UniProtKB/TrEMBL annotation:
InterPro entries named in the record: Nicotian_synth (IPR004298), SAM-dependent_MTases_sf (IPR029063)
Molecular function as annotated in GO: nicotianamine synthase activity
Coiled-coil portions: none
Superkingdom classification of source: Eukaryota
Family statement: Belongs to the nicotianamine synthase (NAS)-like family.
Keyword Transferase: yes
Pfam family, one: NAS
Signal peptide boundaries: none
Keywords attached to this entry: S-adenosyl-L-methionine, Transferase
Entry keyword Transferase: yes
GO biological-process terms attached to the record: nicotianamine biosynthetic process
Name of the protein this chain belongs to: Nicotianamine synthase
Organism: Glarea lozoyensis (strain ATCC 20868 / MF5171)
């Protein structure tokens, strides 16, 4: 078996690989990925593996093991389908609630999205301190939580930051511009009619203005222009391979204004079990954007963040 010596030298590798393969087998055998105790438990187990701090050498050996390489595309697909089902479930639960805003904050990963959005805003302002006026989010899904967090953190003077009483961190965020008021408008883009329909109703029930939070049923290739947007986000599930992600990026930047920012969600290390990673160092990426910031949080936040500025096309 390739890499047998490495497996013997690091006794943690074999049990981890065995656990991943078992989770994949059990998920694949399920008839439905709608949230349930069994589905939730399996993905919690997978997330525990993804977020466990381990040396880079070990994670590389695990992810390059032929058995993991073989099942990884299917595992990514299962994670994608499960995330869609989870967002559908929570979207309906929040929409149907007598207090949608309170129910929203009960969402399992709400604080993760808050932290990720703060991280992304800090990365954006590290490159450009100008107020953000227009944002497009491609791959917004049934529960557009990033857009909702952006709206709160940028438009509502960082209400969540004030409530958390973060002291010195609050001062840093204010200095960076994350607490200043603006008139940001956000366009949520998804190719799923179900996602667009349900998220539109959700946002209405949350009391967010349809002038500030808009929706478009479209794929990236069908978009006519993105020139009015200061920042365009690409969700982690946009493109299932590096080649697909590069293709989408090329299409997107060709419709954006030179100098505008692109935020691309990726993953690092074992988090690659949940989402396909994005390599920002390739020639294809360099032809599209000048990468300015890359952040791997190394916390409970799953996604890494790549922020680049659209460059002139040759």
């Amino acid at each position: 078996m390739p890499g047998t010596d490495a497996l013997i030298m690091d006794p943690e590798i074999v049990p981890t690989i065995t656990a991943i393969l078992s989770i994949h087998t059990r998920l694949f055998a399920l008839q439905s990925l709608v949230p349930s105790p069994e589905v939730n438990g399996l993905f919690e187990d997978l997330m525990t593996i993804c977020l466990r701090p381990i040396p880079n050498a070990r994670s590389s050996r695990i992810l390059s093991d032929p058995r993991i390489v073989e099942i990884l595309p299917a595992l990514h697909q299962l994670c994608s389908l499960s995330e869609f089902e989870m967002e559908k479930y929570w979207c309906k639960r929040i929409t149907d609630s007598s207090n949608p805003n309170e129910e929203l904050r009960k969402f399992t990963y709400f604080e993760n999205y808050v932290d990720l959005t703060r991280l992304e805003l800090a990365a954006i302002y590290a490159l450009d301190t100008n107020p953000i006026n227009n944002v497009a989010f491609i791959g917004s899904g049934p529960l557009p939580l990033t857009s909702i967090c952006l709206m709160e953190q940028v438009n509502e003077t960082a209400e969540l930051t004030r409530k958390a009483n973060l002291g010195f961190t609050s001062w840093i965020l204010e200095t960076l511009g994350l607490t200043r008021k603006s008139k940001v408008k956000i366009l949520n883009i998804d190719h799923s009619p179900e996602a667009i329909k349900s998220s539109t109703v959700l946002v209405h029930n949350l009391g967010i203005s349809s002038v500030k939070m808009m929706f478009s049923l479209s794929s990236a290739s069908d978009l006519t222009s993105l020139k009015e947007y200061d920042v365009v986000f690409l969700a982690a599930l946009v493109g299932s391979t590096q080649e697909e992600k590069e293709k989408v990026l090329g299409v997107i930047v060709s419709k954006m204004t030179i100098g505008a920012l692109v935020v691309i969600r990726s993953v690092a290390g074992m988090r690659g079990l949940c989402y396909p990673a994005f390599d920002a160092t390739t020639e294809a990426v360099a032809a599209c954007i000048d990468v300015g910031v890359t952040v791997d949080p190394g916390t409970r936040v799953v996604n890494s963040v790549v922020v680049g500025r659209v460059r002139a096309r040759e």
